[in-house]
protein-tyrosine-phosphatase (Lachnellula cervina), 359 residues
Amino acid sequence: MALSRVPGEDELYVGGIFTLRRKSTLASTGITHVVSVLKYDFKDFEDWEKYAHLSVEVDDVDDENLLGEFERTGSWIEKALKEGKDGKKGKVLIHCAMGKSRSVTITMAYLLRQYPEHTVASALSLIQESRPIAEPNDGFMAQLELYKEMGCPRDIDAHPRYQRWLYRQEVDVALAAGMAPERVRFEDEETQEGGISEGNEVELRCRKCRRTLATSPYLITHLPSASKTAPTPSPKSPIASLDPPPDHIACTHHFLHPLSWMRPALDQGLLNGRLECPNPKCLAQIGRYAWQGMRCSCGVWILPAFSLQKGRVDEITKRAEKVQSQGAGKDGFRVASVGAPEEAGGIRLPPGMRGKGNL
């Protein structure tokens, strides 16, 4: 199974590196372009100048970043298939070492980019029709799922979800070394995905001074476990965020993304510590943070964890009007407060604090 044609209208082929040694097969197939998805020196291959070549030097490991290459490879393959040589359409071979993981991932990304009707599962099934060994590693499959959820953007680097994913990779590397990350991504200072949504918004306030601490776009919902035994946290999912349950009676903490008011605590570079109310006249101890993660009282493991104790904050539910958000948080809505301007970043400052920057 040196060379496998992907079913469909495109002249797209997947193979391993030894396919390049089979000159007669390449010639009879009419390959014009080659995408190499591995680290290799191709100087020993004969007649290499016959082919237009794109090299993507990556390893076949779960935490390798292939997501950032999807647009470069996708646009290159698209152009190669259309233009080819001598006025004819091109035929593209995508290969890695075995034609199993890396090359299949790049091929799937192309299919997702060009054919929106494809899901990650259907793209893989299509390739497996002619190449049963096709099986990207778990990390690449997760990147493909994220790519599809992002809408296969042409500018991947600028997409907020890609930036968040990159940051999570940094956190993984730091935690593997037993250290806090060198930088902290404060969600209220980052560009957020907008959208139209409606529903109720939750606002968390310090119980002692009533300072607003967080709103719905920055809260992390999680599903309480049936038992108190915490599941093993996935190293590829540094922030647990599952569908919200009907209620959270069992939970004694609110979990949220890092926000700029936490900067004094997080800038210390410690793996864990306490969180204080940002109001200098209050400074009440309202929660904790732990980069290595912590177990909620309901049994769910959150990694990393930034928590507010329910006994130290008040939870206010507000009705959110349907609005087109510009720079809203990941949940896509803000409170449309009558008679009061909306604050940037989705967090509304309490009276007397408006115009004084981020919380």
Summary: The longest helix spans residues 160-176. Residues 188-315 form a domain with the Metal Binding Protein, Guanine Nucleotide Exchange Factor; Chain A fold (CATH 2.170.150). Helices lie at 23-29, 70-83, 102-114, 120-130, 138-149, 160-176, 263-266.
